[in-house]
User: Fold these one by one.
Assistant:
Number 1:
Amino acid sequence: MATLDTSLYNQKGSTYFYSFATFPSVKIYKKSTGSSWNQHLLFGDFIRILDPEIVHNRVKARSRNKTGWIPVEGIQKNRILEVNFIDIGQGDGCHIVTPDDQHILVDAGEYDNMNRYLYWRFNLYRKYKPLPFPFHVVISHSDKDHYKGFEYIFKNDKIKIDKIFHNGIVERPGEPSAFGSIKDGYITTLVQDTADMLKLLENPNKRKGKNSMYLKTLHHVLKNNPEVAFKNLSIEDEHLMAYNEGNLIEGKKFEVDVLGPILEEKNHKKVLKSINNAGKDKNGHSVLLKLIYDKVRILLGGDINTEFGEMIQDYYKSKDQSDRLVMDVAKACHHGSNHFHYGFLETLNPIATVISSGDNESYAHPRPDAIGAFGKTGYSKTPLIFSTELARSNKEITKLTITKIADKLEKIKQNENTIKDLAESVNVFTEEIKKLKAKNKQLNKEVNSYITKFGMINLRTDGQNMIIAQKLEKEAAYGKWDIHPLTYQEDTGRFEHDDTH
C-alpha cells in the first residue's frame, strides 16, 4: 500500500502526524470512498493524520472533533497566517496566529466573549496547566469596549501574557487631565515602558475613583504574569515583532508594522498631538497596525476617527509614502461609525472590510453612510464587506434562544454561589461540589461554542491565496461555510475574487 509523502505532513515522535487543510476548504468524508461527509474544514485548519496509509487517494484523519477520510490533495505541511475577528459584541477583538505559531490578541471587547472564545479554541475546560505558549497583547486604546474584556483573560490562570503593547495614553485619576498633563496642545505624560506603567499600577491611589478603570484592568495581569513587559507603540517602532534578518518565515516576508500613533518630540519630550477633546484624542491615537505576509496587507486600526484619519493620510502623503496605507483587508475603524475620513478610506482601498460591532449600543453601528463609503472606496467593482454583528444574525437567534442562553448563564451563577456556600460550610460536600463544577463546565462549553460558531469572521492566507469565511446559518449540501476565496494576481498587483472555487 502507498503511504503519504513526508512532504505533506509534520511528525512529532514516531506516531504523531499532522497537517493543515489546503486552499480554499476541505471535506472530511465518512468513508474512504463516496461523497458523504461529516466535517467541512477551512484553509489552514489543523489536521491530525491518524494513519499515513493511502486508501483510494484518501488518508484517515481527525479535525474539528470529527474522524474520517481526507483526500491527499486536501492536506499540506505548512501552517498559514490566521486572523480571527471575534464576535465580542460592541467593540473590537482579534486573535492572530502567525505561520510560526505565535499568538497575538488585538483588543478584547468589554465583556467575556474573547475569554470564552479562547476556552473554546484551546479546549481549556480540560487543561489544568497554562498553555505552553504566551500571548502578545495589543490594546489599541483605552476605550473599555476595546480593553475591559482583558480582565477575564488576565484572571485566567491557563493563559500567559508576556507583553502588553499600548498607545502610551493611560487614563489615571488625580491629575490635571484624564491622561496626565496636556500642554500647548500636546499630551506630554505618555507611559512608555514597563517601569512607567508599574509606577502607576503599583500605586493603589491610581486604581480607585474616576478614570481608574483602565489601570485597574491592567493590574489584574500582574498576579498570573509578574514578569509581563509593557511597551507603548508609535511610528518610531518599525515593527511589533522582529524576526531574523529580512523578517522571513520559511522564506516569506512577515511583518507587523506600526503605522500610528504619530509620535512627535517637543522640548526634548515624546508627545502626542491633542485636539482638545479627550475622547477623540485617545480614539485618534489608536495603535495602527499593518500585517504583511508575502503579498497580503491587513489593517488593524482601533478607533481612528475623522480628524486623525486625515492627519495620518496627510503625514504619509508628506513623506511620499501613501502606498504604505494601501491594504487588501481592513478592519473597519470605530465599528462602522460615521466618524471617518473619506480620503483615508480611499487611500486604504481594500478589497475586503471587516466591521466589528454589537447589538447592545446606542450608536446604530455600523452606520449606513459608513457601509456605503466602505463599498465606494473598496478595490474592485464588488468589494467585500463583512460584519460580526450580521454574521451572528442567524435564524437561531430568537427570543427563545436568547432566553436559553440567559438561563444557562444564570444557572452557572447560581451553581457558583452554591459551590462557594458549600466550600465555606462546616461539613465537607466534596462530591456535590464536583458535580456542580462539572455541570458548570458543560454549561460554559455550550455557551462558548454558540458564541464562537456564529459571528466570527475567519481570515486565512498563505500570502498568495486567501479566504475570508463566515459560518452558514444552516448547513448546506455543499458545506458549512460561506467562503470567499481571493488570489493574488501579478498583473494587477492586487488580490482578486477567485471565481474558480
Note: The chain has 13 helices and 29 strands.
Number 2:
Amino acid sequence: MPPAEARARLEKVQGIGVWTSAEVAQRAFGDADAVSVGDFHLPAAVGWALTGERTDDDGMLRLLAPYAPHRHRVVRLLSLSGRARAPRRGPKLPIADYRAF
C-alpha cells in the first residue's frame, strides 16, 4: 500500500490526526517524506537551521519543498546536526559564592 493511502486510512481512526499519522509513517512505514506538521518545536527548528529565522508549519513546508521526497530525512539530519537550535537569549546569572555565609 502506498504511504499516502496508509496515512489516509490511519487518519480515519478517531483521535489520529496528521501529526500522528506522519510519526507512524516515519517509523513503521519507513516513509522518508512524511513531515510532522503540527509539531510544536519542529517548524522553528527547521526555519532556524535553514534561514536563521523561526517559521510556522507553512513556512517549514515551503523550505522543505525542494527536498521532496526526502523531507523527513532532511529534518532528521538537521536535528542531528545541532544547527536546528536558536541561540539562547536568557539572562546570565552570576555565580553565587555561598562560602561567606
Note: The chain has a mean pLDDT of 90.
Number 3:
Amino acid sequence: MPTISQFFGIVIQMFWLEHAPPHFHALYGEHEALIDIQTLVVIQGSLPRRALSLTIEWASAHREELMEDWNLCQSKQLPKRIEPLE
C-alpha cells in the first residue's frame, strides 16, 4: 500500500483497486481510520481526536489531489506524493 503523505506521526496511504466510496487510510500508532475523500467522514475505524483533527485539516486542503491519487490507484498506477501538513 503506497504511502502518499506523512506528518506528525500520521501516515496516509491508499490501496490499489479499493472499493467505493473514494477514501484513504490514516494510520496513527495502533489506530487506523478510513476517511471518505468527498465528505471527510470516517467510514471505518478511528483515530485519537487530535490525530483525526490534523488528518481532516490536511485532507480538506488536498481533496483534489486525493481524488487524483484515487483515480490513479483505480487504474493500477502509483499515486503521487502529497505535501504534508506543516
Note: The two ends are 24 Å apart (CA to CA).
Number 4:
Amino acid sequence: MKYGEWLDIWVEDYVRPVEKERTYQAYKDVIRLRLGPVFGETELNELDVSHIQHYITGLSEHGNLLTGGPLSPNSIRLIFSVFRNSLRRAYNLG
C-alpha cells in the first residue's frame, strides 16, 4: 500500500473519530500540503528513518512554502507528529 493511501485511511478512520475538528483539519492540511506530495507514492514498506530525517531536516532549513526559508519548530513538530502517529498505527496493524 502506498503511504498516501494509508494517510487517507488513517486520518478518516483513526483521527477523525477521536480528535477535535481543529486537530483533524490540521492533520489533513499536513497530509495535503506536505506529506502527500513528497511521500504519497512511496510504498509503506519502503519508508525508512533516513528519508524521513532528511525531509524533517530540510524543513528546518527551507520548509516555508511562502518564503522558502526555515519552517517554525511548531510546524515541524506537527508534521513529525503526523508521520509518527500514522506510521505507528500502520506498524501496530501489521
Note: The first helix runs from residue 3 to 15.
